[in-house]
Amino acid sequence: MPRLSTMRIRNWVTILVLGLVVASLCLWFVRADRLPRTIHIATGERGGMYFKLGTAIRERVQKRTRGNVVVDSTRGSKENLQRLENKKADLAIVQGGAIPITRVSVITPLFPEFVFVIVRRTSSIRVIPDMVGKAVAIGPKGSGNRISALAVLKQFKVPADKLKQNEAYFKDLLHDKVLDGAIVTAGAEHPDLMEVLSNKEFDLLPIAPAAAIAMVHPFLRSVEIPPGLFVKEPPFPAQPLPTLATTAYLVTRKNGSNRLVRAAVQAIHEEGLRIQIPTLIRRNQAVAWVPTRLHPVASRYFSPSDEIGRMANVMESLAATKELLFALGAGFYLLWLRWRRLKENEREAFISEKKEHLDTFLEKTLEIERDQMVTDELVKLRDFLDQVTRIKLQALQQFTEEQLRGDQSFSIFLDQCAGLISKIQLKIIAKTQAGGG
Hints:
By secondary structure, this protein is an alpha/beta fold. It folds into 3 domains: 1-28; 38-302, Periplasmic binding protein-like II (D-Maltodextrin-Binding Protein, domain 2, 3-Layer(aba) Sandwich); 331-436. The chain has 13 helices and 9 strands. The protein has helices at 2-31, 49-65, 77-85, 144-155, 191-197, 210-215, 258-269, 296-302, 307-317, 326-372, 378-398, 402-405, 408-436, and strands at residues 38-42, 68-72, 91-95, 105-120, 136-137, 181-186, 202-205, 221-225, 241-252. Strands 1, 2, 3, 4, 5, 6, 7, 8 and 9 form a 9-stranded mixed sheet that branches. Helix 2 links the parallel strand 1 and strand 2 (68-72).
């Protein structure tokens, strides 16, 4: 009788083990990182930079994934977010500040976008408040262009419903003489924008309180449009124009395919895309342009020496068998939790010390900010640019802890560095083009 009971116990144990193995294999199959059959990239209007970039990376992504890639034209950032969440898109290009960035996972920053206030020279619009009652295109509902335009109009107390034809696309200025102007947020190489501004019928207005607007909008920063950006002779614009800038990002769902993210970030930064799009943000500058956390795969791509990234790469290489080793992993996890409790106080002290160092970096950048405002000498401007770059690199080297990089103060510091670098670079360009080089 005891022997029979022992055999039954062994049989039940065998069945239990086999059941766990089968369950682990099923779970692995369900959770395996698989690419979509057709990869959809949500972009924007067909004549815009988003569509141009999506088209440029389509073949590159297709080559790396060996799948079918489709570029979809959309009405803008909000529609792109909806397509991602409804699984009608796998990658999307969005404007910083146009959507809740926490609802997506950022793969990479793409290029800076500037706010252009365009007016017909024959119109009576001389300042932005003059737009009341006029036909002014600020973009369709759901577009990032409209959101940034509304931020500008709000500063001047101009309600959108006081603008006629405000949902029109700005390129309609070329054939619709009723349109008096437009507020456009776009990259400097936007094909439709270049076509409109190369036409002598239009002018650009400055956004004088750009710094004030930027202070209350975390994704906007104050910059200047350099003279001669669109027409060299005679230069147009004729003088530096204060305005606002934001950043375009490539994003995906939070549970999007790791393989697709890896293919996308490599397609953008390893295929010579900057030859086609010179304003594309460089790989070694990407982290500084993102005010939030990157997708884990993208984070490891941009920071391969990060110790956390190394551990994640090891875990990824074991992904095919991780479900079979779950018991061992659970044991290590419990040991890790115990170790973490013992080290918690030491870690808090370390983070506190690093945050004090961050305050020092912030003070240095503020000092450079003040100094560069009162000079236009190329030598000094270039020296300031080198100083800001060194400060940023020192901070990135010191603040390798994920908790520190996710801290709001660190994000503000990176935004400040990015804005300051952009401002100095624009001043250098302006000075060089004016014959100061």
